[in-house]
Amino acid sequence: MLRDLLAEHPKAMFVVTGHGVGGALAALFPALLLFNEEEDLIKWWSAVYTFGQPRIGDEQLRMFMQPHAEKYFRVVYRNDIMPLLPYDDGVFLYKHIGVCLHYNSFFIEKVHVGFFIV
Q: How much is the CA Rg of the chain, to the nearest whole Å?
């Protein structure tokens, strides 16, 4: 369906977004396109914006997506536990990708670039 829409609108770009578990799926979609070498779709991919997204993969996935990390934007509220799951401890080692737009309890934004843990 996406391929058909982009064929009809050759100047269009697409953004992937989601909240919570939907954010995790949104973050994985471009990774799957890249893994399957869907170059005809990747060239139209603009960005990923997620809200309260849990961690989605391990260090291997993060390194695979590193060339595209500047297209990932995660909005995180300080008191939301979802972005802390699954844990990044000695057992699970789940990671985030991209830029974190972190809001504290007073809704003051702090931008974290790179491999910010939250």
A: 15
Q: What are the pLDDT digits (tens) for 3-15?
A: 999 999 999 999 9
In the chain, the domains with their CATH numbers are: 2-112 (3.40.50.1820)
DSSP 23-59: HHHHHHHHHHHHHTT-HHHHTTEEEEEEESPPP-B-H
pTM: 0.87
Q: Report the distance separating Cα 73 and Cα 17, nearest Å.
A: 10
DSSP 92: T
Q: Which of 31, 17, 113, 14 is nearest to 68 (CA)?
A: 31
| Spatial distance between the Cα atoms of 89 and 77, rounded to a whole number of angstroms | 21
For 69-100, the pLDDT digits (tens) are: 999 999 999 889 999 899 888 788 888 999 99
> Among residues 35, 28, 27, 74, which one has the least CA distance to residue 52?
74
* Token pair recorded at residue 45: 């991919």
- 101, 74 in Cβ contact below 8 A? yes
